[in-house]
Amino acid sequence: MSTDSYVRTPRTRSRRASWSPAGAAARWVFVGIGLVFALVPFIWMLSTSFRTERSLFGSPMSLLPTEWTLAGYLGVWQQLPFLRLLFNTMVFAGVTTLLTLLFDSMCAYALARIEFRGRTIAFWLVLVTLMVPFQVTLIPVFVELFQFGWLNTYQGLIIPRATSAFGIFLFRQFFISVPRELDEAARIDGAGHFRIYWQIILPLAKPAIATVAILNFTALWNDLLWPLVMTSSPEMRTLPAGLALFGGQHVTDHAVLMAGAVISILPIAIAFFLAQRYFVAGVATTGLK
Amino acid sequence: MTVLSSVRRVTLRPRRRLTPALLFLAPSFIILGIFVLWPILASLWYSLHDWTIGAKEQPWVGLANYVELLNDSRFWGAFIHSVVITVFSVAGIILLGLALALALANDGVGNRIIRSAFFFPTVVALTSIGLVWRFLLDPDLGLVGAITRSLGLGNIGLLQSPQLALPTIIFVNIWRNAGFVMIILIAGLKGIPEDRYEAARLDGAGPWKLFRYITLPALRPTMLFGTLIMTIQSFQIFDLVYVMTGSGPLFATDTLVTMLFREGFVNFRTGYAAAISWSLFVVIVIISALQLRFFRYNDVD
């Protein structure tokens, strides 16, 4: 997986250094307007979460609050089972990601490093599931979870999502690039597949693990449709589902709603600023086809 | 274990052994089998019934659900909205993404920071984005309402207007995803060897010719890939519509997935919703197949 070359490319010397003065000016105007559009919604969200009702009605044009208040952040805990939502989202996104990392890397190990009959078919099956839109499976999975008695439970939220074809694909591409000599040597020393997988291949796969972990965690943390369908009680909702339903009911409680949105974005935003290159690597890897 | 015995084990062990492979594959394949592969078939099966969850008998209705679907103006409305959202979103996302990539391709510190700002919306929950934009666009409370008032245009409720709600959804969808295409196109730009530009410059090519005859052809595979991803993603749009308009006003922003959700999990017409999901599946398979053909054509190029 040559993702790192996409992330840090020191070699790009200014190919486009030859902007004409007019071109350079146009470029800055374009980028500047773009930045305003990109940033203002987030600034507005942040400031509205600290704003009083009067400040919002009085001067909706101003980007900064004229009156500051923490009422939004206090209200979020009172008007929503917010701690529970936060906890559910962490359990759902966290546990599912851990299971996905384990299962996907195991599956990919078999597909990349073990020769067995039917390997090609197995890999094709993975590719097929990669192309199936998940909305198509929504109704039958709902019926299955109903039959298992798993609706509105953590296992119902987690187990069906605990593997991802994309992760298997990405791990396989990575494992294939690891030199064969490494596990040949280990096998001479008597190591079985489990030891080779656990002690040799996985420790080498840290970039792939980080990429799959971040992509998966973000997708699950942000997911709306899945938890909306598979949970029914407020105590089992995740943040997006809880906020979407809350937003549908209490249209006027703007500060509370924006505070909820800010808190729900925060973990992903922090991860983004600390580990942006893995987000980029994930995107660039999907670009490798 | 002595060297000798391990060598013997290696030579005695048959090369193709199924058991370890099966153990490694089992967790993922059990989950994919039960929760992805089987449901595709089950979905087809349900769509041929008047299915009620938990009922003892599920009356077989043959193709009646599909016939009803073809005569349902809501379905055609949702289908057309999905197509319109997809076409305009993808065009906007690709054009804007390309413009941003060209403007920010150099790896200066400033450009990197600016790129982050454009990339950030693509990692944030669509629910939060939808909520923020709904408030921003609120005619009484929002920033956009305040701006239109100060310009003397009055209170314009973009999301409350049956004509303007769909274009507004498209706008927010473009706003959210342009950064994604920007990132993959910048990766693509870096893959273009510098000497091609040098050679063309020596031949006297100006900036436009460099773009037209070197940059654009070299970016084609990446742009096609971005088109594929964005087409599929836009066709499955749910979160933004659910949060911003709830399919309204007057179903003006209803899409296939919001309709699927409503029929399946609000009205509990399971068989009918399964028919919608199969239609969605078929459309997406056709789109992917067409675009993959496009890809292959391109690879030969």
UniProtKB/TrEMBL annotation, chain A:
Pfam families assigned: BPD_transp_1
Segments traversing the membrane: 25-44, 56-76, 82-109, 121-142, 154-175, 196-221, 255-275
A cellular component term, taken from the record's GO annotations: plasma membrane
Alphabetically ordered keywords of this record: Cell membrane, Membrane, Transmembrane, Transmembrane helix, Transport
Cellular compartment(s): Cell membrane
Domain ABC transmembrane type-1: 86-275
Topology in the lipid bilayer: Multi-pass membrane protein
UniProt GO BP: transmembrane transport
Family designation: Belongs to the binding-protein-dependent transport system permease family.
This protein's name: Carbohydrate ABC transporter permease
Organism: Nakamurella aerolata
Lineage, opening ranks: Bacteria, Bacillati, Actinomycetota, Actinomycetes, Nakamurellales
TrEMBL record, chain B:
Protein family (similarity comment): Belongs to the binding-protein-dependent transport system permease family.
Gene Ontology CC annotation, any one: plasma membrane
Segments passing through the bilayer: 21-41, 78-105, 117-136, 164-189, 210-235, 273-295
Membrane topology term: Multi-pass membrane protein
Localization in the cell: Cell membrane
Ranges for domain ABC transmembrane type-1: 79-291
Domain of life of the source: Bacteria
SUPFAM superfamilies in the cross-refs: MetI-like
Keywords for the protein's UniProt record, in alphabetical order: Cell membrane, Membrane, Transmembrane, Transmembrane helix, Transport
One Gene Ontology biological process: transmembrane transport
Major location (coarse): membrane
Gene3D superfamilies, sorted: MetI-like
Name of the protein in question: Sugar ABC transporter permease
